[in-house]
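Appendix B. Extra example for self-study. Work through it before the problem class; the solution is given directly after the inputs so you can check yourself.
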Amino acid sequence: MSAVTYSTPQVIEFFNQNPETVPLMIPFDTEPQAETYGLRWTPYLLVMDPEGGVHQRAIGFQQPGDLEPWVLMGQGKTEFNRRNWDAALASFGQVVDRYTQSFSAPECMYYKAVCLYRKTEEPAHLKEGHQRIKEAFPDSVWAMRTLPYRKL
Amino acid sequence: MAEINWVKDWDQAFSQAKSQGKKVYVDFFKDG
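Solution. Structure tokens for the complete assembly:
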């Protein structure tokens, strides 16, 4: 990660100008945190709230252009879990709008649709979410997970 | 050359996040 992703100007700029997230890098054998948070392999990445709650985790290398939306998605999930729909939408929307072909995009399209539904209670957002995911990422797991919404 | 402004201490990162209302991105790294 350091040799490639963290050395890329766009990733450096993303972290250094990110108003929502503190970047923490610590050795894999830091205890008790490594055991407490389930580290079994590296790279091991988490997005956490300040109280220690884990809202997103991943094992494995992330390339430039995919790490940034993955972090944004974690920010969005943190707000989603707090029921802060507008704040969550802001993060998911950034991924959907800016990182359109990233690995996180279809999942963020899903969460965006759910947030819009939770905010408005209008089922059309779920149906629209399915349609958009199906068009952009027909083979993604998120197209499958939204299948029931096509009948709304 | 520019670098990410990493925090390298667990307590400091979470204290900073709490006081500023931020999240924490954690990388448990292993070189090599």
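Self-check: The two ends of chain B are 22 Å apart (CA to CA). If your reasoning did not lead you there, revisit section 3.
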